Amino acid sequence: MIVRLNNTTTSAIAREIDELHVERGEAAQGRVLTLVIITGDAHLEGALETINAASREHPCRVIAIVTDADKHTNTDEKSDRPGTSGSTPAESDRTLDPDDRCISYKTARPGGDHTLDAEIRFGSDAGAGEVIVLRPVPALLDHSDALVIPLLVPDAPLVVWWPANAPKAPSKDLIGAMATSRITDAMEADDPEIAFASLLEHSGAADVDLSWTRTTIWRALLASIIDQPPHLPVTSVRVTGQAHFLPLELLASWLALKLEVPVTVERDPRAQAITGVYFTRGDGTMSMERHRADQARINQPGQASQTISMPLRTAVDCMSEEMGRLDPDEVYQDVISRGWPMVHNRCTR
Fold it and tell me: Could you give the number of structural domains in the chain?
């Protein structure tokens, strides 16, 4: 079910949510966190699909702020019906869509300018929680913290996610400054390399980028094979994969930091992901190679190759991991502050 409120206020939205919970016999106390998504309209529905799936494991209230709502305003949905500023729409103002999924409220604040439209999504449209989509005019974005504060779940952690273009310094963002965890995804930015360089310069303890989260399976499996006998020292490492692929660069930086040996990166423009890691030891080369989209092969000198399942990580996998952790990722901070310069031969912080 989707409830639309046009030209409304956050207090009216909060009241409507409370009434919907009463009508549906639900309570918001089961929400483990509040997730604020800050994005443009082009990335909105994709981000909400990801979170709807991830919230099955981590029930949450989602507040999505559309930063370019003025470019996508649907004037056909506005109404000249008189009403009271910020009031909850009357029952007679409800219209049912033909599929009986969406109830639209068409309201207007008499006098003054159109400032804020909103949607409240429940049920199959919202995963294990509720989704509030805010479409403010640009002037309200300068007070985005005031927009979300009345809608936060009390005594629950606040997580902020920028699915595409993040601010240069997420920790100084009005909402980011309040957050327990700040999640970015530089790979989805207009220019991933410039975006990540900015994040490196301004990274805070609560920040993490999904480029790092995409390497979780690689890191876990590589750590396990290095721990297997014979425990011979690694003298150098070679990492191969897709060109202009931040997870590849971060994996190489992690290996350089942890092993304290030279790490080289071979970038293949034809590759679609990380394709292999090769450890040079006294007895030869030990490697892990992705030979299929969902499988990898482990090669040890003097042993038969071992094939293991290794599916590509989805956005849902990555967001589920970050929503389940919430505490600062100290390893990530070490990698970008100390491991990254070891591979890229320059200090970016």
Answer: 2
**CB contact burial 124-155 (16+ within 10 A = b; e otherwise):** ebbbbbbbbbbbbeeebbeebeebbeebbbee
Residue 332 lies in a domain: no
Q: Are residues 221 and 138 in the same domain?
A: no
Domain that holds residue 262: 216-309
Asked whether residue 189 is domain-assigned, the answer is: no
What would the pLDDT profile of 132-144 be if each residue is shown by its tens digit? 999 999 999 999 9
The CA distance from 234 to 214, in Å, is 24
| Whether the Cβ atoms of residue 291 and residue 297 lie closer than 8 Å to each other | yes
| Within-domain flag for 336 | no
302-333 pLDDT tens trace: 999 999 999 999 999 999 999 998 899 999 99
User: What contacts 59, CB < 8 A, 6 or more positions away?
Assistant: 30, 31, 32, 127, 128, 129
Backbone angles phi, psi at 277, to 5 degrees: -135, 130
**Residue 300 CB-density burial (10 A; 0-12 exposed, 13-18 middle, 19+ buried):** buried
What tokens does 173 get?
């963002």
